[in-house]
Amino acid sequence: MRTMTIGTVARHAGVGVETIRFYEKKGLIARPRKPLKGFRDYPADTVTRIRFIRQAQAFGFSLAEITELLSLRADPRADCADVRARAAVKLNEVKRKIQGLERMAEVIERLVAACRGQGPVDGCAILDAFAADDPGDKPGSHRKEKRNHG
User: Fold this and answer.
1) Where does the pLDDT of residue 142 fall: very low under 50, low under 70, confident under 90, or very high at 90 and above?
2) Which domain holds residue 49?
3) Confidence grade of residue 136 (pLDDT, cut at 50, 70, 90)
């Protein structure tokens, strides 16, 4: 089995050495024993494992979820249905986030449309909406009343 130093693994996996140390600390990859002389030697499959972790993160899986996926991958008794179930849960979560982002975009769109885009910020529809109890209400509906202190 070919081995590599941490720097070589990092280069091949496209990550920094700090990322590898972080993954070691989180238990996502094994930390090799330090020899009496020289550097730790990482097995070549560490690169594949790190790429797996990075790809799963890119798809929105948390490190805890990735740990579960890695466990399933290593378990000869695991069934593809287990992986599919976790992916289905993630898919639903992503769809909920998208719906939330679409709602946010609609509110921000209304706020931008209500903003005069000039003049003093006192009475700005956007800032007023952010200060309101419910920024989703009509822009400008919660304008602060000016007080006369005189």
Assistant:
1) very low
2) 3-78
3) low
Terminal CA-CA length for the chain: 84
DSSP structure string for 5-22:
-HHHHHHHHTS-HHHHHH
Question: What percentage of the chain carries pLDDT values higher than 90?
Answer: 65
> In this structure, is residue 150 part of a structural domain?
no
- Looking at the domain assignment, is residue 34 inside a domain? yes
State which H helix or E strand residue 4 sits in: strand 3-4
Domain count, the chain: 1
The CATH number of whichever domain residue 25 belongs to comes to: 1.10.1660.10
The reply to whether 36 falls in a domain is yes
Question: Is the distance from CB of 139 to CB of 125 less than 8 angstroms?
Answer: yes
Residue 93 has pLDDT above 80, yes or no: yes
Angle at 10 between CA 52 and CA 38, to 5 degrees: 125
Is 107 among the domain residues?
no
Locus of tokens 């600390």: 25
> Residue 79, exposed/middle/buried by CB under 10 A (0-12, 13-18, 19+)?
exposed
